[in-house]
Amino acid sequence: MVAPLSTVLFVPKDQQPVFPLWTQAPWESNIPQNKHWTDCPAAGSIVIMQQPPHQTVALLGDIVATRFKLRGVLGAVIDGRARDVVACWELCKDGGFQVHSRGLSSVGTSLEAKPWAVDVPLTIGGLRVDPGDILCADEGEGVICVIPRAKLEEVAALLPTLKEADDGVLKDVQNGVDFPTALANHPKHYTNH
């Protein structure tokens, strides 16, 4: 799955404008009053959702996942917890939707958190993630990478060379060539840089 990101930032449930409880949060919510937050991410995007540290509630379950999928959102990545694993797995079976999370919880969002801002920059694992950046995910391995949208053309230009070198290393190894020699045979392989 490769698609642009939409972001949703959650805050402690007691967050109020002018009294931010989490320093990453903007002072005021930017979610339109006449719109539910699940209707904000664009169809064709992957939603990355972030909750404050140390919370144990789930940000996504079967209802939110179903709403996203029916709206054409391609998946959800949760920097936090998810729930309703079996129901979410069923939604993902056709390959048209994916869910990835750092953890699981049976507890609903509203006990600790609430959605506060959409399409704002997030910092995840020390890395800045901006709305519109491109997320690459694999159904078996999880999130592979996020490509900043300003670097997309540069990355796209590198991919054919890297793919050719990677395929060459794999073919050599399949034919019994030892790994160091296979890498030496394909100097443009990403591990050689």
Automatic annotation (TrEMBL):
It comes from the Eukaryota. Substrate binds at residues 61-64, 83. InterPro entries: RraA/RraA-like (IPR005493), RraA/RraA-like_sf (IPR036704). Keywords: Magnesium, Metal-binding. This is Uncharacterized protein. Gene3D superfamilies: Ribonuclease E inhibitor RraA/RraA-like. One of its GO terms (molecular function) is 4-hydroxy-4-methyl-2-oxoglutarate aldolase activity. Mg(2+) binds at residue 84. Its cofactor is Mg(2+). It comes from Friedmanniomyces simplex.
